[in-house]
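Field: sequence (string)
Field: structure_tokens (string)

Example rows 1 and 2, in order.
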Amino acid sequence: MFQRSWLKASCLTACVGLMSSMANAGEIQVLSAVVKGKTIPDATVTWQRTGESSVKVNTDAKGTAGFTQFKDDPDTTMLIEKEGYSTLVVKCPCEGFTYALSPEMPNLDGLRVVLTWGSSPSDLDSHMVFPDNHVFFSSKEGDQTHLDVDDTTSYGPETITVVKKKQGERYVYMVRDYSNGERQQSRALSASNARVDVYVGKTHIRSYKVRNDVKANSWVVFGIDGNGAFHDINQYLSLTRTAELNNHLAGILKADSFESHSMITDTMIAQAKRMNTAGEKAYQNKDYLAAMYHFQDAVNLYPDFSQAYSNLGVTYPKLDRRAEALWANRKAIELASGNRADRIKASSYYNIGRIYEASSEWQSALENFEAAQRLREHSAYQKGISRMKEKLHIQ
């Protein structure tokens, strides 16, 4: 077992007491994802339900907001918004949990991972591994990666920020139930209602929820390949020793590919396709924000839905979300197949190059324009290469 301090900050102990009372009061609490114990006042919380008018409430000085108008069930959606933070979208039930807002991230290749859960177990831990780095509670600082918040008193958030992902290197993120780290048959993690939210730029791009039917103390959630594409792993296992954990994560990093253990049913795929169609309709009506949410719902249900990623790739730029467009185009490259694979990849590399060019990152732009040109000859790709060589004073 890892050694750690169990000293609990008084502000977080107070938060637990507050959350215990919320279940009866019909309230939620909004905290900062990156500052331990900091509440977020004046955030706008919107509850939506199909066929009914939405309800908006602002959080008070303690970051709390009450709701009684809607049923707290999967047909209700909650949005939490505040200037300077990424909007958080959650499918209810919502009552009895904390919700963490992530400040917008300025770097194109940055990302933030936020873990939240229920009252039990008291201590879930976030782990981010990449070559020569393992960021978690006893090693909070890595290479341009750090653990912002470590929570040991239930609910979370527990947050890891990658300030700038290292090009060409693979990353793996895992959740471990520290409270039950020596119990191989524990159901506590499975019953924790744990949720992992991933943010890029100013956008909440992915959400993962723990399965409720497994015996395990460790959940390997996702990986990021050398090109920056996300891969769902969703592997559940019990790791009781430090060496076991380290060896397992090292093995995933060194494997030829990330193995997915996700359970995708025909019903989920059909629902994802309906969401994608709704997104395309919203896009045609120039309601780009609604389109984005529909496409994101589609890929959360069906992570290999190439058309939804392609749609996100053209929607994000309409909303001036360049970091998010990078993520979508990289996933489109990874999923491209069939007779049009080279064309799709080349177009996506060119889109990535244009994003880097707009951010004055000339070398990264050049590399992506050249990748596009290698796949398919096109005058736009060659012009991009020429522009970047001129910026970099390359003959």
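Row 2 begins here:
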Amino acid sequence: MARATGIGSMPGTDFVESLKIATEATPDLPFIPELPARGPHAGMIGRTLGLITDLGADLQPDGWRIGVGEGLDQRRARSLLAHDLDVAEEALSEYVGPLKVQVTGPLTLAASVERPRGDKMLADHGARRELAGVLAGGLATHVADLRRRFPAVDLLVQVDEPAIRLVMEGRVPTASGWATHRRVDPPEADDLLRGVVEVIVEGGATPVLHSCGPEVPVELLRGLGFSALSFDLSLARPDDVWAEAFDGGMDLWIGVLPIEGAMSVVNGAEKVREFVHRLGFSPEAVADRLVVSTACGLAAATPSRARQLLIDSRELAARLDPT
């Protein structure tokens, strides 16, 4: 059967309520929510930096900076994550089934944080490798902690890479804004991502790649060991590369419902069917390899809208099942 889940981010600052929504609205594939409205330490980048212990980070006026010593915000990010996991551990103490968590991938992280003297970590080959290495180390510890906290769950780790195409095409602007950083070639991107995949798998979890940008590099990602690819359906163009990736075992996590505007569950289900048909597969025959979500995270939605979109995603997934 097809399932539904959330991308990760949720609105508001009440973690207990957000976790309740995430588990009740998408019971077949619940997730540990992220609440960026609580501040930069709770957002996608800050939360991931909280996992890193071998490389200090601090929040500067122009954003997160690496290698300047551990700052208050990094400690706060680490403390807040531990608190959230304590809450989730208690709430899900009797839960058995899949559970998803999210982490920022090494390419997007390098494009988002700065070196000690300014400009992105992306600018330096050695800095990129160092950042990816400490990320993998922190993630290994994180996965082990999650396995201890949730021993009965099937743990999935979603690696968020919204900037992967920008990084690989050399379209990330420099600090001056007058130029862009050199592109990261596929072999290096492969190497940086592969290290993350390996620690997830070695920790007994399942890696999933999420990118809500256009032109996701499917050909690169399909050889890295990710079990599934999460993407924005409105930005995807079904072609042979997608078909080969799916046929080769990479499941599809399809972001269908828009955060703004309206789309009925019926129309959303038809769009999913059309996409899968164009890949050469029967949606009913492969329903168990499909996961439905919103097109992107829900941080900008109202709490009631976020809840309804997750419920709609679940209803959409049910329409894909064979009858």
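free_text_note (row 2): The chain has a mean pLDDT of 94.
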